[in-house]
Amino acid sequence: MPGCESSRAFFCGKVIMTRTGAQLLVECLLNQDVDMGFGVPGESYLAVLDALLDVSNRFKFVGCRNEGGGAFMAEAYGKLTGKPGILFVTRGPGATNASIGIHTAMQDSTPMVIFVGQIETGMRGREAFQELDYKAVFGSMAKWVVEIDDADRVPELVARAFSMALSGRPGPVVVALPEDMLVQKTDAVPRGLIRPVQADPGQAAIAEAMQALRQAKRPVIVAGGGGWADDGKAALKTFAEANNLPVVVSFRSQDVIDNYSPSYIGDAAFVLAPEIRSFLDESDLIVALNVRFGETLTAGYTLFDPTNFDKKLIHIHASEEEIGKIFTADLSIVSEPNRAAIALAKCEPVENASWSERTMVARAAWEDGFEVRPQPGQVDMGEIMKYLRGRLPDDTIITNGAGNFAIWSGRFLHYGAGLRLLGPQAGSMGAGVPAAVAAKLAEPHRFVLCFAGDGDFQMTGTELGTALQYGAALVILVLNNGTYGTIRMHQERDYPGRVSGTDIVNPDFAMIAQAYGMHGERVEKTEEFEAAFERACSSRTGGLIELIVDSEGISYKTTISELRARNS
């Protein structure tokens, strides 16, 4: 390897490269077509950082400001590219800081491989400095956790880590790297590129699914989850339109299907739109494509009741562990989502004219939802979203963290075929800014827009330093209402008039952006936004716009009324 200080050994006339475990690990990563990773440096994996220096022309190490921010970046990179996001963190506190992104990757079904520094093998079990049992810590948070004790096994276990992260339902894998293993000498050689194991739906199962569609009077597709590619999304659209099938997407999966398709009728988010709930209640066949029946999709298991589920169900998922977990499907198909969608799109269409009329009504209700009544205060987010829908490039990448502010990016944008949404299905605050940094580094020629709340931004806002260092020119909208809006919403609902802990005294976000070399300004009136946004977009270093929104507006009270209507 050019620049590598490995020594050469001779065996049976053949030249064998002797490397350290760290050098071998880096070679293994390059063989897996990895060219970028994120992390915070730590003394527990100095040998890896040294080995990365020798391949800096082939691998970009992005140094982050906090392991949580780095984990969010790796998760967003995996979600955007389909390749495992790579994260390096140090032992103990570094690993626990990173746990938020690991949990997000698991719940969002995102491929990710996390390399964690570890104490020397001879010190284990003594509660050494920063010692953790990573299998115990991450066992319920990751698909697989492994510690590499022997440098000779680096190729085997790294290959398995990539296979686990990519195969079936994608997810995070944690690999612990003891310090002494990283400096061991080894003659082992890297393995070739891993091709993940993915199930194919099979012709018989697809034929049975189509027969069920012929017999159904009110079928609906519910699609979402991770692992989608462009060809699978296009096939889903083709299949739905050819068969006059309505499509509902799961929480923060709006970019799974082109929202301009006549089949798209909206998303099953936390506050389920009445028309979507009514539509799903009326259906007699659910085609669940790559979704998990969690609390959000089921409206707290009030929409689909596990004890009294009266609908025919076809469940298609990449993991057999998801099928039958909560509901017993009439037809179970273990399949990677893109292959399933492509196979369905090739089938002879089924006519269902009466239900297609109902679909048109539901879609019209979704479109009507974009006409937001005037919002209280001087900044009307409804008007701003209307402007953004006409202004954003067709291939924009949208990111957001968690909070009621994300309603705007989730519900009031049209996700056409080129738009991408990188939002945490796990509901993780602080995900938006790091995700935007990663997206801009991975796709530097695309426009990246981040929606953040005031509380949300302050969890990972220091990653603007990463954006500054690596030239990620993104645009951020910070909605400042002086409160943790989602928590306040529930507080007002459950403990009316007893506000506790949810008010925030905020800094000047525009000045913070300027301190990081970005364009920053505050908008206090709706009519100021357009010019401010254009200035932010024109900045070579990116921009941040602080929007002063009314805390008495959609931040919580409008949503409370929706929740009460739903629960009544």
Summarize the structure.
With 568 residues, this protein is an alpha/beta fold. It is 37% helix and 18% strand. It contains 21 helices and 21 strands.
Mind telling me the CATH class of the largest domain? Alpha Beta
Largest sheet: 6 strands, parallel
CATH fold field value of the largest domain: Rossmann fold
Class by SSE composition = alpha/beta
Going across the major beta sheet, what is the strand order?
A: 4-3-5-6-8-7
Distance between the termini: 67 Å
Tell me how many strands there are.
Answer: 21
User: Which percent band covers the strand fraction?
Assistant: 15-25%
Shape: globular
Question: How large is the radius of gyration?
Answer: 25 Å
Low-confidence spans? 1-6, 9-15, 552-568
Q: With helices defined by DSSP (H or I, 4 residues minimum), what is the helix count?
A: 21
**CATH superfamily (homologous) name of the largest domain:** Thiamin diphosphate (ThDP)-binding fold, Pyr/PP domains
Q: How many domains make up the coordinates?
A: 3
Share of residues in helices: 25-40%
Name given to the CATH architecture of the largest domain: 3-Layer(aba) Sandwich
Overall residue-averaged pLDDT value: 89
